[in-house]
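Fold sample X.
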Amino acid sequence: MDIQWYPGHMTKTIRQMQEDIRLVDMVIEITDARVPMSGRNPDIDRLAQGKARLLILNKADLADEAANAKWVSFFREKGYACVLTDARARASMKAVTQAIENASLEKQEKDRKRGMKPRPIRAMVAGIPNAGKSTFINSFSGRATAKTGNKPGVTRGKQWIRLSGKVELLDTPGLLWPKFEDPAVGEKLALVGTINDQILNEEELALMLVRRLKTVCPGVLAARYETDESLSDLALMEEVGRRRGCLIKGGEIDYKRTAALLLDEFRSGKLGRITLEMPEEFV
């Protein structure tokens, strides 16, 4: 399955961001901790050149803890300020505040030497769809200022979030790039819910999930569904359907319900904390 998704509003979004980048001091990029590299839009990297940077690995509570630590080290070695967050938990925002201040120290010092009065740091918040940008902004600000939803494409226009104190945030819509050169990137983004499920064949996607989980975290499916992972991908999926009662008249497997179950239990963390890619793959 060749997975590509680039709605028309994303072209408008990148043009607007190109105009707005001059208004900000830094770019806060949100990526999904389960796919830290695949979830980074190369257009954002190009757009943010010359700006202070902060990379946030969000949904870290759904990703493997050891993998989280490896990814933070990986990005910091490449010169990024990098923080792990669960955007739903305000407690993880303390580290973000400190990271923003640290990342903007050079800019603040230049302003001071020019005799400019201190002003709030202006930061553009950018990232792929459904990475948790709006949830992050709401947690960081302590109030519901940005629209949220457990599906891609909720934020459609820019909005300034003016916080008391030292930071102003510019929220932007989730942004993908026009073509995934590596099919595995599109697959991983679809699995974590970045791609709109309505354009996908969920049964095929669930089979991709089964195949990938058998490789990256063997034993997880067997433990959750009491099944044999030596089965073929399709046979294993069918066994999950039987064990969970996803059946239609005559006792046949309801593949649609089975696929939805598998995808939901992975995305919600019911299968455990799982990371789909590791830094060693990108050295």
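Fold sample Y, listed below.
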Amino acid sequence: MIDVAQDAPNTVFLAEDEAGLYLQATTSHVWFPKGQTPIVRADPGRANTHFYGTLNLKTGEEIAMRSDSMNAEVSAQHLEMILEANPDVPILLFWDRAPWHRGRAIDKVLEKNPRLEIIRFPPGCPELNPQEHVWKTVRRTVSHNHIETKLPELAKRFLGKLNSSAFYSSFLRKYGYPILCTNSI
């Protein structure tokens, strides 16, 4: 990675992941007057949606999109979004080994965009991916203890939080790349 930074100092370092969202609220830190039982709504349905999220490891900026499915075609769309958001600069993208991160649609995007390089996290190590911390933060502020009755409204709030907040990461500094951290917190 240091070689990439030395050869192309304007390289953008990103971490990507996906998350699912259900209308079912998760309960967290419920406060209620003594003697009263808290009421938590339970949605009997299985309706869900998914989000693709990519964290800029230097700036904390998030690029996110909602999708009803996760497959190679949708993953390729998200890669195109990343490329469009970071024009004319080299991109080093960290992501996991999900099956929807492979396939002809992904190969086409990579062939067409040699400035995009992918490094895969080791198998079974979600704790290494800084995007996981973004999901945790947004779930805590948006989908824990929510009272939404419609999934599209909850999804809109979730996506709004992703796209309007900065999520700083110590990933580059933690793994020995302080030279790359000049702009990060």
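Sample Y note: Residues 2-180 form a domain with the Nucleotidyltransferase; domain 5 fold (CATH 3.30.420.10).
Also: The chain has six helices and five strands.
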